[in-house]
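Margin note: ligand = magnesium ion.
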Amino acid sequence: MQVLIIRYSEIHLKGNNREFFENALITNIKTALKGYTFDFSRSNARYVIRNFDTMLLDDIVDVVTNVFGVHSVSVAEEVESNYQAISQAALAIAPTTGTFKVNTNRADKRFPIPSMKLSADVGGDILEQHPDLKVDLMNPQHVVNIDIRENGKTFVYSKVIKAVNGMPVGTGGKAVAMLSGGIDSPVAVYMMAKRGMTIRCVHFHSFPYTSMQAKQKVLDLAKLVKKYTLRMTVDVVSFTEIQTAIHEQCPEDYMITIMRRFMMRIAEKIAKNYGGGAVITGESLGQVASQTLESITSTNSVATLPVFRPLIGFDKDQIIEIAQQIGTFETSILPYEDCCTIFLPKKPVTKPRLSAVEKIESVLDVETLVNNAMQTIETIVIE
Ligand code: ATP
Ligand code: MG
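Resulting structure:
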């Protein structure tokens, strides 16, 4: 029978966290595979998926290798632990040219043939069928693995497919990510989900200055990152009143700086409302005027929770590469504008002084504006 072996990152399994980590990982694999039929079982230090539709194998491998905490997977043939069945399965997956070796792990010591001898014998069977092959024990091109389990069954497989690694979502605390329609923030969500965070998103839109397509684009991005976050809710906040107030009452060059502070306050309030302990942004140092050290200082100073900026040291090229790899890039580059591009100052300050920012902002009724914005929240659960 064809089965899928799933290995996880052992490094996180030390001590008391094992149960916690494993329970989250198992739940997440099952959640990610919702809609597929399969049987799931634990077999020490790995999981095994059986009885799935073999036509869907590639899809299942794609899903499982993208679950954070999964280290690697192998498609294996599971056979009875007897020589003939093992040798036959090994022959079926053996290469026909190049170099190879057979590797045996005998967890079941009742199996009568020692590992070295089994490897040699099965290797001999393979060579007999494929005389062009050469054995290379040190540096083979192909490895045929035989894993004799304690339950009377043996796994025979060749390839080890690398998975994403990371920590299972649900083991790293909760956060609210500020999701714009751009390239960076979906990548930031991906990176923090990879560290095990449970993430929901907040998006600020300035309808009617920004279009419904702009909002839909963000929801589309949220749906794309849900592949990694497993669950996704987006709180859409109307930013129009705040943006208009800043536009009317503050100097144009400070517009973005002050907008950022409002966004941060609201994101943090939402985070606290649902027990979140951090805010995530897609900022990258020096990328634009609002991401200089001085700008970040002025945004950060209104936050009380830790603010995670996983892209802070990344070049745009690197961010784009990840965006392409995780499948968000094409959507991110659609033209619809997010709220930051309206009322844009011609020359934003690049080095706002915090004291100046605070003084300029003091003409606004910050608390009322924030509370009003909180009233506009539309909570959208992404299915
Ligand atoms: P991105 O590609 O993520 O939009 P960016 O390079 O355009 O980033 P900014 O526009 O300066 O950079 O935004 C910095 C960060 O602020 C974003 O990564 C995002 O986390 C947050 N942000 C910006 N605009 C919005 C918005 N309309 N709603 C929610 N968060 C936003
Ligand atoms: Mg942006």
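The longest strand covers residues 70-80.
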